[in-house]
Specification:
Calcium-transporting ATPase, cytoplasmic domain N, about 650 residues, 25 helices, alpha/beta, Rossmann fold, 20 strands, 3 domains, eight-stranded mixed sheet
């Protein structure tokens, strides 16, 4: 936008210089004094260039950023405001952005037994049977050991510090009566093998409490991957080989829980005589844990707002396909169409160009690691999309930096994520993102309104002066009047237009093309028409004055007053390019514009009342009829331009 404004400013300088040279030449040809024409041409050149344009753009951005700050949106990069207005695809982390990131265990499956958990408590009498107590106790022991969350029981209620997933696992173990400190003391931690992009499994190696010469291996992770490491199962209080039927039943149960939108973890354990954790594939299967992370309040409605605004939403999650599908359905990501999912394995196996083509139609990316997020962003960018990416972790930084707009969470986000992000949502609320997009669009639209106003009014000054001198009817405005007109009508109304509140329908139309010029060809045609209407009306008032007073200060005063007031009223028309002033759905009030117009009109009246200003501007006394003519010629362009607005 800054480049566009610079180019537009340069073009206007050349255009105004050329026109002023023409006015100067015609004036000399018409016999006007050289000094008078020189002063008039220089004044017209100054007035014709919208020198308020850079100030309007900078002030609009600065005040817009300040306004967004009050609504929990922190802008860290100035041009991100402009990009928000052209945002086409919004990539959303599921956990913490779409969901509340408050995991809780709701189901546990062990040895053919399905256990419900409500508010952290196992339901029914099933856990009391010896067989289930054995397998459940072992499972709870493993999720206590294969867990990096800290536990503090010195408070009135237990406090868990770690990831939401591991906190939920530790909480259910504690609720079921597991003594966390005792278990971790009995099985001291030796080594942790974290999950990776290639293996979605976490393993922890511990000194075996019953045999110090052996190690105890605790494992949790993707049910399919954990099951692939198992040869045994704990059945009826004994370890028995896993049968194909059991494997199929476990996979079926995993799909059932995942299709209900649960994050499912498989749990297993083993014993080993060495510290190497990579080679063990003879583990004992214990069961599955299903965890729920509720959607944030109002998130579905916010997604609807994004869709209405023409913004594609893409959910990115580490969950398996079935879980992602269930949540995507609940959010209506596909807007009634077929929900399309791309898995991380597809990103690894498909050609990047093919992935880019597919990304354009995908609603969900499942089993995605932080490194995969960068691939997703780059694939969407290759497809020609303007992409925003949300993230809160250290590993999200490359994707946040690569996206046109990187969005970090203020509360849950890490320092690294916030440092590289362009926008920070300080309340971690997705609805705040809708506000940011609305403000981004509004700021850009307001700058366009200001530019439109400045070009239309400045062009009308050129038209009036060029017509007056070319037709040999004198100079409708003298040099000082041109400079005063420029002072009164340019800066304050232009700034006030830049502070317009969002229009009611700002989030109901598609994002603009980022390559779209700030003033399009259709805008230039509209500006030319509006300038012509302003000029004709002012010249009509001036022509009336010529008939009454001839070429005189009275005539110049009437032309000056008519054009000045018409330009000020034109600011009202520039509030919207399509919404008529007299519509049944008026625009929100703009107090800044009301103050700017009142102040500018007051200054204009002072020019006719204060002796010093009257002498400086060569203002002559006016009759009541003259005042009526001025008022009519000032009001007429507003009525005509409003009536001819494109629908």
């Amino acid at each position: 936008m800054e480049r566009q404004l610079d180019v537009a400013g340069s073009q206007l300088v050349w255009l105004s210089s050329t026109v002023c040279a023409v006015v100067f030449a015609i004036g000399l040809w018409r016999g006007y004094a050289l000094l008078d024409m020189l002063k008039t041409s220089i004044a017209l050149a100054v007035a014709a260039v919208p020198e308020g344009l850079p100030a309007v753009a900078t002030t609009t951005l600065a005040l817009g950023i300040r306004n967004m700050r009050t609504q929990n949106v922190l802008i860290r990069r100035l041009d991100a405001v402009e990009t928000l207005g052209s945002l086409q695809t919004l990539c959303l982390d599921k956990t913490g952005t779409l969901t509340a990131n408050t995991m809780s265990v709701v189901e546990v499956q062990t040895d053919h037994t399905h256990l419900q958990v409500i508010e952290g408590q196992f339901q029914g009498d099933a856990p009391s049977s010896p067989e289930i107590r054995e397998s459940l106790g072992k499972l709870l022991q493993v999720i206590t050991l294969c867990n990096e969350s800290d536990y503090d029981d010195t408070q009135d209620t237990a406090v868990f510090e770690g990831s939401s997933t591991e906190n939920a696992l530790l909480a259910i173990a504690h609720s079921a009566g597991i003594d966390i400190h005792q278990v971790r003391t009995e099985y001291p931690l030796v080594h942790v093998h974290h999950r990776s992009e290639a293996h979605n499994v976490m393993k922890t190696l511990h000194t075996d409490g019953s045999d110090r010469e052996k190690y105890f291996l605790a494992v949790k992770g993707s049910p399919t991957e954990v099951l692939g490491l198992c040869e045994w199962s704990l059945t009826d209080q004994r370890i028995a080989p896993l049968t194909p039927t059991q494997r199929q039943a476990i996979e079926t149960e995993n799909e059932r829980m995942a299709s209900n939108g649960l994050r499912v973890l498989g749990v297993a354990y083993g014993h080993t005589a060495d510290r190497e954790t990579e080679t063990h594939n003879d583990l004992v299967w214990l069961g599955s844990v299903g965890m729920a992370d509720p959607l944030r309040d109002g998130v579905k409605e916010v997604m609807g707002i994004f869709h209405q605004a023409g913004i594609e939403t893409v959910m990115i999650t580490g969950d398996q396909r079935q879980t992602a599908y269930a949540i995507g359905k609940e959010l209506d990501l596909s807007r009634g169409d077929e929900l399309k999912i791309l898995d991380s394995t597809d990103l690894a196996t498909l050609d990047p160009e093919v992935v880019s083509e597919l990304c354009d139609r995908v609603h969900i990316f499942s089993r995605i690691s932080p490194a995969n997020k960068l691939q997703v962003v780059q694939a969407l960018q290759r497809a020609g999309k303007v992409v925003a990416m949300t993230g809160d972790g250290i590993n999200d930084a490359p994707a946040l930096k690569a996206a046109e707009v990187g969005i970090a969470m203020g509360h849950s986000g890490t320092d690294v994520a916030r440092e590289v992000a362009d926008v920070i949502l300080e309340d971690d609320n997705l609805s705040t993102m809708a506000i940011a997009i609305s403000q981004g669009r509004t700021i850009y639209n307001n700058i366009r309104k200001s530019v439109h106003f400045l070009l239309a009014t400045n062009l009308s000054e050129i038209m009036v002066m060029l017509a007056g001198i070319s037709l040999g009817i004198g100079q409708p405005l003298n040099a000082m009047q041109l400079l005063w007109l420029n002072l009164v009508t340019d800066i304050f109304p232009g700034l006030a237009l830049a502070l317009e509140p969002p229009e009611p329908d700002v989030l109901t139309y598609p994002p603009r093309d980022p390559k779209e010029p700030i003033i399009q060809s259709s805008d230039f045609r509209r500006i030319a028409v509006e300038s012509a209407v302003l000029s004709i009306s002012a010249l009509a008032a001036y022509s009336y004055a010529l008939q009454q007073y001839g070429i005189s200060p009275q005539s110049s005063t009437i032309g000056f007053m008519s054009l000045t007031l018409a330009q000020l009223l034109h600011a009202i028309s520039c509030r919207s390019q399509t919404r008529c002033l007299f519509t049944s759905h008026p625009l929100p009030p703009n107090l800044y514009l009301a103050i700017a117009l009142s102040g500018s009109i007051a200054l204009q009246l002072l020019s006719a009342l204060v002796p010093g200003l009257r002498q400086l501007l060569h203002i002559a006394p006016l009759s009541l009829v003259d005042i009526a003519v001025i008022g009519s010629s000032a009001l007429l362009p507003l009525l005509v331009n409003e009536a001819t607005k494109p629908k």
